[in-house]
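In response to a reviewer's request, we include the raw inputs and outputs for one of the modeled complexes. The two entities were modeled together in a single run.
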Amino acid sequence: GNSVTQMEGPVTLSEEAFLTINCTYTATGYPSLFWYVQYPGEGLQLLLKATKADDKGSNKGFEATYRKETTSFHLEKGSVQVSDSAVYFCALASYNQGGKLIFGQGTELSVKP
Amino acid sequence: ETGVTQSPTHLIKTRGQQVTLRCSSQSGHNTVSWYQQALGQGPQFIFQYYREEENGRGNFPPRFSGLQFPNYSSELNVNALELDDSALYLCASSLDPGGQETQYFGPGTRLLVL
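The model returned the following structure tokens for the whole complex.
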């Protein structure tokens, strides 16, 4: 079945460091891929998405490129801030599964000043 | 534009009781999905409703049931609560059930079963 695997956390970085959070997926067909962010005590917010191969999603300095050949959707940011501290979830959705989101286990990011 | 809202925010129940959680979808959205998020884990899909009909179900027992109303708001009902049902329950709405549509999440209801 479809699945998402994320790199394990927690990830601890200093402010202005470069961020990469790895995400790979297994899916039949052509899923859409998403990154969601969850701040402490809150629900999930969409960070970015890509709906077809080679698409790049971007938002708030974060980027991720849909790589079908490597079945990956890694999240990157060139310079993290303390306010980026949160849990990041990679997810996929396939139309043939009613659009339900399948999430990775989440990666906790902590940015120190 | 009003986002997705959920009520209550927190709830404490005892084992064997029943609970109803509520969700109001974002304006213009006809699809509502429910997820269970255990502590430290990613959300797990419970089911989805599209135009008042169930449109897909995850690996949850029948004691998890739902409804969607004509205004597209939704309820999640859980009967015979178990300790493992303690979790954050998230509701998400979208324009339609297609895989490309973004799901917008509410803040969640945190359920504790004692």
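As requested, we also summarize the result in words. The mean pLDDT of chain B is 94. The two ends of chain B are 37 Å apart (CA to CA).
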